[in-house]
Design goal:
Helices cover 35% and strands 26% of the residues. The protein is α+β, with helices and mostly antiparallel strands and 80 residues long. It is elongated.
Length: 80
């Protein structure tokens, strides 16, 4: 497979603290991009530039507080 036909994907996890979203690298390539920026997280602008390079951004969202509470009280709702 040539590099022109390879799909480039990075995975990030979005968390919210006090109303501010932070973007945490999950996969090795996303961690390299964060290292290039000299920070443990990625900025929204960095993600935009990574997308301009042709990467697909796979976003994992952290469960909200209410979702966490419901999952604790009703474990059958947890995904496999």
């Amino acid at each position: 497979m040539t590099s022109a036909t390879m799909t480039k994907i990075i995975t990030i996890r979005v968390s919210t603290l006090y109303g501010k979203e932070t973007y945490h690298p999950v996969c090795p390539d996303a961690k390299v991009f964060a290292d290039l920026g000299g920070a443990p997280t990625l900025s929204a602008n960095s993600i935009r530039l990574i997308a301009l390079l042709g990467y697909t951004i796979d976003i994992q969202k952290e469960p909200t507080d209410i979702e966490k509470l419901l999952l604790k009280k009703m474990p059958r709702l947890q995904s496999p």
